[in-house]
Amino acid sequence: MINLKHNDLHPNSIISELTYDNTSKTTSITPERIFIDSKIELIPIFNANFTDVSKLFRQTNKEVFKHYGTTKHKLPSDTKNYVEMKEKLWHDADWFEYIIKYNNSFIGKTYLNAGGRLDSFERGIWLQKEYWGNKISQKIADALIYITFEELDASYFTVGCVIQNVKSRKSIEKYIHRYNGSFYGFVPRTDVIYHEDNEDIKSVVKHPEWIITHTDYYSNNTGISTTIPNMDYKDIDFDGNNYI
């Protein structure tokens, strides 16, 4: 296990301690045990207690999934199929999904989605509503960004959210700013259902995307720029039309 204190971490990180398993193999290139500030633990979803995972997906407030691709599971069999799929993706070095354990309770999930060359990783997360706004997401971002660049030697780290999810955007902006990242535009996502009440409707959804490059991370600078010519981040209109 690697144990790092605040002075060992990125100078712009807000976490004070990070511990993780540094054993890496072709079937499991990301750490299978991650501990953050003693209260947060990330567990591969297929290694977490199945009953607790099933309850998490069935009992989490529906509002959590409103702007997220995942939906509530109606039956334990839904969770079983989901976990088995994520275990295969993990061993195929495609998608690394973790259950978030906080003070011994399962409170959400996070993941790193690997690029085809394993030199880029996209992050996603959802938390039970009662844990919103208390820096858990920020601390997990710090941990996964550190692992992405320091352990996986990635070229870049990306993250996005649907345009309607203002809370997620505000959260993303905080850590993109900490690592001197940039905004690279609105990506249309098709055939994705984000509104469970309208499952018969498939829209083209605007999906803002941000990036932290290897150079951004190691600059130790802060700020958010854009990759859009002649456009400052403060001039981006996030309140325009929801759909393209």
Structure commentary:
- With 244 residues, the protein is of the alpha+beta class.
- It has a single domain (2-230), classed as Aminopeptidase (3-Layer(aba) Sandwich).
- Helix content is 25%, strand content 29%.
- It is built from 5 helices and 11 strands; from the N terminus they run ββββααβββαβαββαβ.
- It has helices spanning 50-59, 76-91, 136-151, 166-178, 214-219, and strands at 2-5, 17-20, 34-36, 40-44, 95-102, 105-114, 120-127, 156-160, 182-192, 203-213, 225-226.
- The protein has an 11-stranded mixed sheet, with helices on both faces.
- α1 crosses α2 and α3 (136-151) crosses α4 (166-178).
- The protein is globular.
- The mean pLDDT is 90.
Mean of all residue-level pLDDT scores? 90
CATH class descriptor name: Alpha Beta
Report the CATH topology name: Aminopeptidase
Per DSSP, what share of the residues sits in E-state strands of 2 or more residues?
25-35%
Number of domains: 1
Number of strands: 11
Please give the CATH architecture.
Answer: 3-Layer(aba) Sandwich
Largest sheet: 11 strands, mixed
Figure out the total of helices: 5
The helix fraction, in percent, is 25-40%
SSE run? EEEEHHEEEHEHEEHE
User: Overall 3D geometry?
Assistant: globular
The Cα radius of gyration reads: 18 Å
Parts with pLDDT < 50 across at least 5 consecutive residues = none
N-to-C terminal Cα separation, in Å? 47 Å
